[in-house]
Amino acid sequence: MPVYAPPAKCWQEIDRELDKVAAEAPLHSALHELPAYTPPSMVWARITDTLEADTSQQQLTEVLAKLPQYAPPAKVWTAIEGGIRPPARRFQLMMLTRAAAAIALVLGLWWAWSQPDEAPLQATYTYDQQTTRAQFASIEDWGQADALMQKAVNEFREDPVAKQLPTYELLLSEWADLKDAQEEVAKMMERYGKDAQLIRQMSEIEKERSGLIREMITQI
What we know:
Elements lengths: L7 H26 L7 H26 L7 H11 L13 E4 L1 H11 L15 E4 L8 H18 L1 H4 L4 H25 L3 H24 L1
Antiparallel strand pairs: 1-2
Helix pairs in contact: 5-8, 7-8
């Protein structure tokens, strides 16, 4: 039989493997000489708790992601808002008729505050309500009435007796809301003109403001 002689590259590969083993021998020997270390049981318990917590958190996240979304009806939010904030006076805008505050209220306030300083301050007012047509002639007089009403509000705000009323903050809040509504309608009038519907809205706001002023005056 012929004698088999492997090629030189095979011997070279074997030499390289032997050299590698010889080079790693000190490392293996050093690793075997290292002292054995056994961690205390509390370390393993802590690792176990961490792994279990991560697993529970992942399961909770997956369950929450599968829950159906729920949008409560609008009446729920309305009920919540009503419980947080005291109910304020709401005014409804009339489409065909309006209820206007009587001019006598404004004249009475004007007369009272225009008296000399030595005369005692007496706010005399009357109130009337009537139905008018939608086309209102003019709203320029509302600016003068607004100044008188604001003066009454300032008197109410500074009055020590009024400050003790349980409705003190509520009345001032309602006045602020009505004032904002009046300014908004006034801006719309400047933009779109004195439309009949806008005039009716402004009239309704003025009626509510007049009623609020009467209530404030009775408390001073």
